[in-house]
Design a protein that fits this description.
280 residues, mainly alpha, Four Helix Bundle (Hemerythrin (Met), subunit A), two-stranded antiparallel sheet, 10 helices, globular
Length: 280
């Protein structure tokens, strides 16, 4: 009986896969710990909301967003990206950005609409789940052009969480009349939910990781320092401005996306024409 070398390789690969499922590298614990901390912050925001401490609840979601932005970067820096970490991150995002923010709005005013208010909550959560599922599937597409990494299709869930809490930001600076108009809040929540599952492109911000020239270092650091100072001095006003600016910038990102798409299609057509000409 002759043993095929491919059979031994397959068995070795199977053993390696089983071992990898049972153990995780130490370097992956750091980003996964950040993800778990973000999950805890999201859950804690709901507790603060139940206690009526809405400012602390919003701050907890902001902490979750910061941790969510760090875990992926830390994983890539430590070369600790794993399938387990990606799945955990998606589950954390769903709770922190798809459930917690809209639950705060429900506890704040949407519960006054009865069943309609709860339907809006469910709709937002479901749209967030669909958005995350679509994003995970898109990551596995090997045929995407490189430039598409600069855009998200639809508003990402962390950004949607920040956008949907605009009525709370406004209430913290004294604009309280919105609490007495829950129908208006419900319509706004439905609009943000639609943006998550829409085909509207939004800037991903991944170009922020590119190198900065030496002559630009001082202005960049000064801008960061001023932004942090304004955020800590006037947090709710700053968040209101950021939300309005983000929404106002969506048409710009859409135009830029379409421009890139047309240019890519034009280049592809030229390459096809050259190929056909060479083959004649």
């Amino acid at each position: 009986m002759t043993l095929s070398p491919f059979g031994s390789r397959d068995r070795a690969a199977g053993v390696h896969q089983r071992r990898s499922l049972k153990t995780l590298p130490i370097r992956s614990l750091v980003p996964n710990s950040l993800t778990v901390m973000a999950l805890c912050a999201g859950l804690t925001s709901i507790r603060f909301g139940l206690d009526g401490k809405f400012e602390l609840a919003v701050l907890a979601i902001c902490v979750a967003a910061i941790l969510d932005g760090l875990d992926g970067r830390v994983a890539r820096l430590l070369k600790g990206t794993t399938k387990f970490g990606a799945e955990l991150d998606s589950l954390s995002d769903f709770l922190c950005f798809g459930v917690a923010p809209v639950m705060l709005l429900y506890l704040w005013t949407l519960n006054g609409l009865g069943g309609l208010g709860w339907i809006v909550v469910l709709g937002f959560a479901v749209c967030c789940a669909l958005r995350l599922a679509r994003f995970n599937v898109a990551l596995e597409d090997p045929d995407k052009p490189a430039w598409t990494a600069n855009y998200f299709i639809g508003v990402p869930s962390p950004a949607a969480a920040g956008l949907v809490m605009l009525p709370l930001y406004l209430s913290f600076i004294g604009v309280d009349f919105l609490k007495d108009v829950p129908v208006l809040i419900a319509a706004y929540v439905a609009g943000i939910a639609f943006l998550m599952v829409s085909k509207i492109p939004s800037f991903s911000g991944k170009r922020l990781g590119m190198r900065v020239r030496r002559d630009e270092m001082l202005p960049v650091l000064l801008g960061v320092a001023l932004s942090v100072a304004v955020l800590f001095s006037y947090p709710w006003i700053t968040l209101c401005v950021l939300v309005i600016g983000y929404l106002a910038f969506l048409p710009v990102s859409t135009m830029r996306y379409r421009h890139h798409k047309k240019r890519t299609a034009f280049v592809s057509d030229d390459d096809e024409d050259e190929f056909l000409a060479d083959s004649k």
